[in-house]
Write a sequence for this structure.
């Protein structure tokens, strides 16, 4: 589905819609309201208006939501789960509650593309568990849980958790990926027991116009079965700002091919400095490339255990 298709097919205009497994996917005068919620996030997202100026809220009641694909194309959308101990996703919650509530999004057995896709849009994910169902019978196609594309795209992920169903079965694609030129903020989020065959768990490409902030993130017991990668791979081009603040890496490793050798490599963070022929600072006919003044990497109070 293209961004143009997404705009044409948005039938009704709602600023707020609710989703519950007890709801129904049908269109009436009260569809999407708190007392008559939709049943799936994919259906609700398809029927709210697409706009680059109007923020659309999807409030998700607790339970496990099996989705084929959630597509955000050229729109601003917010998907919020419910905090532990509350009954209404719009209620404010305090620090005494566990921020990862009982609302979970995972793929269906029919998923054959990235689960959550953002194309030149803006997406906020709040108080959710994002899980890849990598069990044997439902894992025919490699896909990412979250894929962000386009220089106008941005994502904000707060108080979420990234998980897999089978923490002994490795994935064949990044759990989350960000194209060059996009922006992302991840705060107060945990990533645990995610295994990858050849790719990182988080792949983030950074260019001149990128702003990347990763703050209060806990990454624990993730493994990459490839010594040339890492749990987080920052592919850093000639500009952009990256901030890693209060990051905790625990027991993350990248191993050599077929586990050869005596010790695994530490695989928490890989920073790859790259040149770009598409950069505005590239000098034709020269082997040198001037770095942008905006290129800045900040690591503050990060712990590697």
């Amino acid at each position: 589905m293209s961004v143009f298709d997404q705009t044409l097919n948005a039938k009704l205009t709602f600023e707020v819609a609710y989703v519950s497994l007890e709801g129904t996917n049908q269109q009436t005068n009260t569809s999407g309201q708190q007392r008559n919620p939709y049943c799936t996030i994919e259906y609700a997202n398809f029927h709210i208006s697409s706009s680059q100026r109007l923020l659309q809220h999807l409030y998700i009641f607790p339970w496990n939501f099996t989705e084929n694909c959630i597509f955000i194309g050229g729109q601003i959308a917010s998907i919020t789960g419910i905090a532990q101990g509350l009954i209404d996703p719009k209620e404010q919650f305090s620090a005494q509650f566990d921020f990862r509530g009982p609302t979970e999004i995972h793929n269906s057995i029919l998923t054959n593309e990235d689960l959550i896709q953002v194309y030149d849009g803006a997406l906020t994910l709040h108080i959710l568990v994002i899980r890849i169902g990598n069990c044997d019978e439902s894992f025919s196609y490699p896909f990412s849980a979250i894929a962000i594309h386009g220089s106008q795209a941005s994502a904000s992920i707060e108080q979420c958790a990234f998980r897999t169903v089978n923490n002994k079965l490795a994935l064949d694609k990044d759990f989350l990926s960000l194209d060059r030129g996009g922006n992302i903020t991840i705060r107060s989020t945990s990533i645990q027991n995610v295994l990858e065959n050849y790719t990182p768990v988080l792949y983030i490409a950074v260019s001149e116009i990128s702003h990347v902030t990763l703050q209060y993130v806990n990454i624990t017991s993730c493994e990459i079965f490839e010594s040339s990668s890492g749990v987080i791979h920052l592919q850093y081009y000639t500009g952009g700002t990256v901030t890693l603040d209060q990051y905790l890496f625990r027991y993350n490793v990248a191993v050599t091919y077929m586990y050869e050798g005596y010790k695994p490599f530490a695989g928490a963070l890989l920073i790859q400095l790259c040149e770009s022929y598409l950069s505005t600072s590239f000098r034709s006919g020269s082997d040198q490339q001037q770095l942008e003044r905006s290129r800045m990497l900040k690591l503050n109070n990060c712990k590697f255990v």
